[in-house]
Amino acid sequence: MNIEAEIRDLKRRIAALEADVPPGSGTSARRRARTRRRHTIPAHNCTRQEDPPADTLRAPARGDDLRAQIRFLQAEVNDDLSALNVEIGGFRRQANDHFASAHHTARAHHDSLQRALTGLTHLLERLLTRLDA
Fold it and tell me: What is the Cα–Cα distance from 45 to 79, expressed in whole angstroms?
């Protein structure tokens, strides 16, 4: 799933910042471009995540910059996870509504068939009693 890939990428970038390794050394530019192209999740209340600014990917000169960048990236991950939870909740509600509608339709169809079968049973009994008489 694309969101999981983005989360893994953010975690890798956080780990790279913590280890003071320049990000991008573990993945090729072609792979990153392919991941960006595949990011096509249709969501009416979410926007596509843009590439992070170049200054968030630079190697920090001081420890304070590093901590600030880590906090920034952690906040981004938290925001993404919050948005994902909202989307999952919306999907659950929508799926529940569809299930309830399908259940109601199936139940109504079942009841209709049951009534028709009962009517046919009564008709068959009447015909058999006329035949016996």
Answer: 14
